[in-house]
Structures are given as structure tokens and as C-alpha cells.
């Protein structure tokens, strides 16, 4: 049941990426990101009010900083989705655990053993294949996704520091609130009035973002995080299918070869850390 919940979260995540890519064909990425977190905030507020959940917080500054990181990362991610195939974007996004481990060494002063460095080098070798860095067909726009992965990793580090100091609903609510507030500024300069159809898709984006975390938390109530690691890459298959059916994108052979390096490297890292603990 726990793994089923986790796979549902991956399905919703893929659907959100498809919605973002569809909306990005006309609307600016910053506007889509703003609307996503605006509706996410509203849905969380309704949830907290209905079920009488406390939204008390003692870390307003941290939430503001997380909101700034998350907005920037999501806006860059959304822009990247409009520039490169969906499958390539998902594969590059798999580097988040690698960035997180490296940042944990720099910020949290965690020890990085030989196994971590080997896995990191293998993972980034896969990234070089996916992006085509050094080849004639290199697409510099793919590096945008690496920037977003780095920013998401910074968010993960903050989550690791403050997750036990704040309720889940409070972290979700204030992160979404400050992300929407920060996003309102650049959105005001790039605003394009969405159609009713596009507005409906952004509402689904906001609800979907909260649903992803809900199903992840439900999954972690039943299984260890390390047990879900191999299943995370189901998203690669889902994104390949969605990219082909909706956007007529056919993944390159180099993408699959790169994924065959990145996926074992990140799974190995997660299992290695779990074994050490």
C-alpha cells in the first residue's frame, strides 16, 4: 500500500509537468509558478480551516527564504520544460539527490566517503550524456534544468534542518504562501491574462502540488524512504509515455544511456546511506 501511494505521487508529478509544459506554450514560467502556489496556498488554507489544523510558526524568515529558493527553482524548471523534451528534463532532475549529498557536506559538514564520490561522478557522467555537453548537438538550454536541480537540493537541505521543528501543514502553507508572494513581483511585469481553460489548469497544478506531498507522506507512514528509491524512476517511464503521446517527443538514445548511469548511481547512494544509518 505504501509503494502504491508513492507511485500515485509520481503519476501526479508527471501530470503536473505535462500541465506546466502545456501552459508554458503561451504563459511565462514565472506566472505559471505564481498561480500554482497561489492556488496551492488557498487549497491548504481551506484544508487547515476545515480540519482545524494549526498554522502556527516560529520560522517566518526560514519560510521566506525557502519560498525564494522554491519560486526560483520552479520558475527555472518550468522554463526548462518548454525548452527541452520532457524525458530529458526528468532524467536531469534525478540529479537532485546527488546535489543534496554534496551540499550536506558543505553546509551540514556531513562526511562524504569514497562511495559517495564515485556515485556522484557516475551520476554526472550520465548528465553529460543527456545534455550532450562537449558534443556538436549540445543544447546549452538543458543546463537550465541543472540550476533548478541545485535550487531544489538547497530546499531539501533546509527541509532536513527544520522538518522536525515545524508541523507539516505549517511548512507546506507558509512555503506556498511566501513562494506566491515572491512570485507576484516578477509576474506583475510579465502578466498575460490566462484563459478560463488555462486558469483551470493552474488550479489543478496547485492542488496537484499538495497532493504529491500528501501521497509521499502517506507512503512514508508505511515504508522506509529507502524502499521507495527504486520506484522513483517509474517517473521516467511515465514521462517518456506522456512526452510521446502528448508532445510527440521521442527520447534520444543518449538520454536512455545517461539514465542508465544516473539511476543506479542515485539508488546506490540512497541504499548506501540507509545501510550506514
Low-confidence segments, given as residue ranges, are none
Coarse structural class: mainly alpha
Strand content: under 5%
Question: Count of DSSP helices?
Answer: 12
How many strands, which pairing sense, and closed or not: the largest β-sheet?
none
What's the helix-strand series? HHHHHHHHHHHH
Return Rg in Å: 18 Å
Give the total of beta strands: 0
Description:
There is one protein chain. By secondary structure, this protein is mainly α. The chain has one domain (2-276). The chain has 12 helices and no strands. Helix 2 (29-50) packs antiparallel against helix 8 and helix 5 packs across helix 7 (143-162). The mean pLDDT is 83.
Give structural attributes.
277 residues, mainly alpha, 12 helices, single chain
Task: Outline the secondary-structure elements.
Blueprint: H1 2-23, H2 29-50, H3 60-83, H4 86-93, H5 96-107, H6 114-131, H7 143-162, H8 168-190, H9 196-220, H10 225-228, H11 234-247, H12 253-276
Helix pairs in contact: 1-3, 1-9, 1-11, 2-3, 2-8, 2-9, 3-7, 3-8, 4-11, 5-7, 6-12
Amino acid at each position: 500500500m505504501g509503494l502504491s501511494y508513492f507511485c500515485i505521487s509520481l503519476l501526479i508529478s508527471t501530470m503536473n509537468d505535462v500541465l506546466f509544459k502545456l501552459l508554458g506554450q503561451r504563459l511565462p514560467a514565472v506566472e505559471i509558478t505564481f498561480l500554482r502556489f497561489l492556488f496551492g496556498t488557498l487549497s491548504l488554507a481551506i484544508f487547515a480551516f476545515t480540519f482545524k489544523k494549526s498554522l502556527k510558526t516560529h520560522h517566518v524568515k526560514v519560510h521566506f527564504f525557502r519560498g525564494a529558493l522554491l519560486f526560483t527553482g520552479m520558475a527555472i524548471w518550468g522554463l526548462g520544460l518548454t525548452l527541452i523534451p520532457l524525458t530529458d528534463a526528468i532524467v536531469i532532475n534525478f540529479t537532485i539527490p546527488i546535489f543534496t549529498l554534496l551540499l550536506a557536506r558543505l553546509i551540514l559538514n556531513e562526511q562524504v566517503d569514497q562511495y559517495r564520490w564515485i556515485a556522484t561522478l557516475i551520476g554526472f557522467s550520465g548528465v553529460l550524456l543527456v545534455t550532450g555537453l562537449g558534443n556538436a548537438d549540445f543544447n546549452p538550454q538543458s543546463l537550465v534544468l541543472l540550476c533548478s536541480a541545485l535550487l531544489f537540493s538547497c530546499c531539501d537541505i533546509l527541509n532536513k534542518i527544520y522538518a522536525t521543528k515545524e508541523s507539516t501543514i505549517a511548512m507546506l502553507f507558509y512555503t506556498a504562501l511566501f513562494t506566491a508572494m515572491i512570485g507576484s513581483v516578477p509576474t506583475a511585469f510579465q502578466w498575460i491574462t490566462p484563459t478560463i481553460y488555462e486558469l483551470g489548469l493552474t488550479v489543478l497544478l496547485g492542488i496537484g502540488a499538495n497532493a504529491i506531498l500528501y501521497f509521499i507522506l502517506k507512503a512514508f507512514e508505511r515504508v522506509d524512504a529507502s524502499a521507495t528509491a527504486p520506484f522513483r524512476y517509474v517517473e521516467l517511464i511515465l514521462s517518456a509515455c506522456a512526452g510521446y503521446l502528448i508532445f510527440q517527443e521521442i527520447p534520444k538514445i543518449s538520454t536512455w544511456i545517461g539514465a542508465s548511469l544516473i539511476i543506479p548511481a542515485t539508488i546506490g547512494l540512497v541504499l548506501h546511506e540507509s545501510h550506514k544509518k
